[in-house]
Design a protein that fits this description.
Rossmann fold; seven-stranded parallel beta sheet; 504 residues; ten-stranded mixed beta sheet; 2 domains; elongated; UDP-N-acetylmuramoyl-L-alanine:D-glutamate ligase; 39% helix; alpha/beta; 18 helices
């Protein structure tokens, strides 16, 4: 599903109106109908329900006014609060308000100095519709609007927002003060601000409705990753064998971090990889019990990490492999950096680089690697690692997750899987926003599983962008299933059995 900002949506609608000869009033009528259809599905029966609609002077308010009329026809007890300067109402808004006036609808003009009256009236609502600002809000809000928002949030009635909760920036998800909706009805296309935190926390559950005409969004390079992404998985032939599904070399682990290597290797297998060889420093080799992993000890450096003395054996292990996964639990030192850079420079196949492996990716090294090699790389940083890569800080990265991932991907011609809420997967030409996951995944080891999953999908033939995006989706979905007993206390290893269930 394509994802747009409010400005992009308005541009797409304008082009559609011009090319198709559509009437904005007709489209608003359709929008109102779709809103009511959702309300019928979520809050039926509507007959007799007290539905209170907060309507601004723009087209978001106009959508609410159409919905008000149709709700009246269904027998709902509708009350409309007109908020803002009605002299500045759009022509579509004014036209629908005139119809309601002729119908004798219950209309109240809101005076910000008399909000105590609004609070008393709203407290009787069975359902509140936020049709105030929608995607038109960019901030800041003045004192009257802020007080109204706070008032709505104090009332216990369920709230449905049209297109975007008032106070949420539809492009960035930024919030200073916003209406906290239980449900947000996205019109035409999903709005980016409803998917990015903190806006996502105010949008509640997002639903998408069409506007009755196709939107030509070919120029929009953002998509939400959902269950349909599982169709990217290649078909497995009945006569395939372990060599058909990729052999991954995992270079991971150090003294105290054997678990990172084990989790990564297990995730390769659970993700459908045919074989995995895990190369670890010889000092932790005896911590691996016999199982399906091929574990190979390599000479270690001081501190229990891989080092320059490991290179000959590691380069030999790379021969005949399909994918390289490097970084989980490696530790940081000059020697580790040398190992990571040497292996990546000599490897022209797909690679997943995570955790301590990312620390080796200085700009001088990246420039030394041909673009043809870098385009096969998938980097999986968390915000702190992304901040180091971009000489930024984690707050700035989280403040523009899409931009941070996309800019770095475009700068170096590779794929970035920026972990977090939500995980963003970016290549120079496209961005995928993940739809799964929960706070239970904020625990040690889950990133190692994501690395292994990505490697498994690369080994089965997915190109790097789709491998990263699908791995993020499956990883988050496994976390959601594992959190059924409660996300607090979830361990990374709890996710492993669910990966097989999801991929089938």
């Amino acid at each position: 599903m394509r994802v747009v900002t409010g400005a992009e949506m308005r541009s797409l609608e304008k082009k559609a109106f011009e090319s198709l000869g559509l009437s904005s009033l007709v489209v608003m009528e359709t929008a109102g109908s779709r809103i009511v259809e959702v309300l019928k599905g979520e809050y039926a029966p509507l007959e007799g329900k007290r539905v209170h609609i907060l309507a601004g002077p723009g087209n978001n308010g106009g959508d609410g006014l159409v919905a008000a009329r149709q709700l009246l026809a269904l027998g709902a007890r509708v009350k409309v609060y007109l908020v803002g300067d009605q002299k500045r109402a759009t022509k579509e808004n004014a036209a629908n308000l005139a119809i309601l006036q002729k119908l004798g609808a219950d209309l109240v003009s809101v005076d910000f100095k008399q909000l105590h009256k609004v609070k008393l009236s709203l407290s009787f609502a069975d359902l509140i519709i936020d049709a105030l600002l929608g995607t038109g809000f960019t901030g800041p809000l003045d004192e009257g609007w802020t007080a109204l928002i706070q008032l709505v949030n104090e009332i216990q009635s369920p709230v449905v927002a049209i297109d975007c909760p008032t106070g949420v920036n539809s492009a960035t998800g930024e919030v200073s003060e916003a209406i906290r909706a239980d449900l947000t009805i996205n019109l035409g296309l999903l709005k980016l601000g409803n998917l990015l935190y903190p806006g996502r926390a105010y949008a509640g559950r997002n639903v998408l409705v069409d506007l009755g005409f196709p939107l030509r969004a070919e120029g929009i390079a953002r998509e939400l990753v959902g269950p349909a992404a599982l169709n990217w998985l290649p078909e497995r032939q009945p006569w395939s064998h372990k060599g058909s599904h990729g052999h991954t070399l995992v270079v991971a682990g150090s003294l105290g971090y054997a678990g990172a290597a084990w989790l990564c290797g297990q995730a390769v297998l659970r993700g459908g990889g045919g074989m995995v060889t895990v190369a670890v420093p010889e000092g932790i080799y005896n911590r691996f019990a016999p199982d399906e992993l091929i574990v190979v000890p390599v000479p270690e450096a001081e501190g229990g990490t891989v080092g320059e003395g490991s290179l000959e054996k590691l380069q030999g292990l790379l021969q005949g492999k399909d994918v390289l996964a490097i970084g989980p639990g490696l530790g940081r030192s000059r020697q580790v950096t040398k190992v990571v850079q040497t292996l990546l420079a000599s490897w022209d196949g797909p690679a997943v680089i995570d955790a301590d492996g990312l620390a080796a990716l200085g700009s001088d090294f990246l420039r030394s690697v041909p673009p043809e090699q870098r385009r096969r790389w998938v980097l999986t940083p968390h915000p702190g690692e992304m901040a180091r890569l971009t000489a930024s800080d984690p707050a700035a990265v989280n403040g523009d997750r899409v931009g941070s991932a996309l800019n770095y991907a475009q700068q170096w011609g590779l794929v970035v899987v920026l972990k977090g809420a939500p995980t963003v997967t970016a290549a120079p030409e496209r961005v995928y926003i993940n739809s799964t996951g929960n706070h239970g995944l904020a625990t040690a080891g889950t990133g190692d599983i994501l690395t292994g999953l990505t490697a498994a999908l690369l080994g089965q033939g997915l190109e790097p962008l789709r491998a990263g995006a699908l791995a993020a989706y499956v990883h988050g979905r496994a976390g959601d299933l594992a959190a059924a007993k409660g996300p607090r206390g979830l361990k990374a290893g709890d996710c492993l059995p669910f990966i097989q269930e999801i991929l089938q």
